[in-house]
Amino acid sequence: MNLRMLLHTRRVVIGLAVVVACMTPCFAQGGRVAVFVQAAAPVPAADLELIRAYASQQCSIIAAARVSSSGEVMYAQRATSTYVGNSLSVEGLQRLAATLGVEYVIIFRIVRWESQVSFRPERSLVMLGASSLFGATWQLIATPLGLLLGLEKEATVGLFATVLTASGGIRFTTSVTRTDRPLLSPLTADPVEAAKRAIQAATYELAIAL
After folding, report:
1. Cβ atoms of residues 41 and 113 within 8 Å
2. How far apart are CA 123 and CA 146, in angstroms?
3. Which residues pair with 33 in a beta bridge?
4. Could you report the per-residue pLDDT of 57-66, keeping only the tens digit for each?
């Protein structure tokens, strides 16, 4: 390895170390957090459970936090008669945080959940134009394929992420919108994937900001 390559490697290693250091949040110093995912949009119950599990996982991995389990959260809500809904009093939040033994409460509130199918005629015209160069048999095959190629499905999810302290103060808040539109979008575009991307982006933001 020559000197130039060695210096470049050292710069990369130092750069990665700086990024990791900048992303180490106060959660790593403090301990446990509680994560809630709310739906202010028509989210299917099964999808919401998947997103809740994913949010807890991301907070544990990205934010280096010890996340309370779903069982602990359910028990604390029943024990304190405090449920995280459209509104949450300061006293209720303090009781909930004390019962769970957490320093922060993270709330992801999904406010947009959309899945739309549109038609882009220019895509179909390209396929139909190409099929005209071949025989009639190929044209019969290409016509439905051209129509299918013009379909585009897009899944969009938007959410608010809020970090509350155990005393009831707002420590951090942000809003994120993400879209899932893969290459084979008529078959695979999924709002759950868009929600996962939005939660991941919001978790990175709060990990850096805190």
Report:
1. yes
2. 7
3. 67, 104
4. 999 888 788 8
Domains, the chain, ranges and CATH?
Answer: 30-209 (3.40.50.10610)
Q: Specify the DSSP class assigned to residue 22.
A: H
**Crossing angle (nearest 10°) for helices 45-61 and 191-209:** 30
d(CA 65, CA 80): 23
132 has pLDDT over 70: no
Do 121 and 162 form a contact (C-beta atoms < 8 A)?
no
Answer with the residue of higher pLDDT: 57 or 121: 57
The token duo for 130 is 């190409």
Dihedral Cα 45, 202, 86, 97, nearest 10 deg: 100
What would the mean pLDDT of 22-37 be, rounded to a whole number? 64
Q: How confident is the model at residue 162 (pLDDT cuts 50, 70, 90)?
A: very high
User: At a CB cut-off of 8 Å and minimum separation 6, what does 152 contact?
Assistant: 117, 118, 119, 120, 181, 185, 186
For the stretch 185-201, pLDDT in tens is 667 889 999 999 999 99
What is the 3-state secondary structure of 64-120?
Answer: CCEECCHHHHHHHHHHHCCCCCCCCCHHHHHHHHHHHCCCEEEEEEEEEEEEEEEEC
> With contact defined as beta carbons under 8 Å apart, do 77 and 96 qualify?
yes
For residue 17, what is the enclosing H or E element?
helix 3-23
Predicted local confidence at residue 174, as pLDDT: 96
